[in-house]
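Contributing new records

If you add data, match the layout below exactly. Sequence lines come first and carry their own label; structure lines follow with theirs. Keep one chain per record. Anything else will be rejected by the validation script.
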Amino acid sequence: MAMTQKNNRVAIEAHAQRIVDVVVRKAEPAPEPPKPVYEYSPGRPMKFQDIDELRAMILEYFKNAAPHWEEQTEYIDRRDPKSGKIIIEDGKVVQDKVVRKVKTKQKPLTVTGLAVALGTSRDVLLDYETTYSEKYPEFSNTIKEAKEQIKAYAEESLFGTNTAGVIFSLKNNWGFKDKYETENTNREVKFINTVPRTPES
């Protein structure tokens, strides 16, 4: 009798453990599928592997270039209020630390500047935009959108005073060309003699 009860208890505990194991397995999150590896060619991974990370880095580039407030620290020589002379103690000039908040100016937006901010080169960006546009359209479209923002900035800058560099950028990055138009019109010109003619003698 005791043996039978023991066997029943062991069976019940084993059954309960199986139920616990099933519940635990269901509660555990499913493993994430492996992320795709973007490659130039087999065995040559591309510079950027995460499209969200690339977009965040591009956004940071534009954010840092836009006017914004930042702290600037200066060290100013301390002067005697009466004599106006610089105060020196123990052979060193006494300085006061001054922290000011200043608003930065708009920094020029350039394709090369974007490439540097992304830790790569202009040629690599162009590869993402063109060479791999069909293979990795999400990366290509992201680079195109960023370049369009830079182009818009360049075109708006044409209305300023210093435009030589802007024109060079537009020609070099977007194929802008100088366009000259000449208009040739053929007109028939009639000379009318309105002077009275005298009779021939």
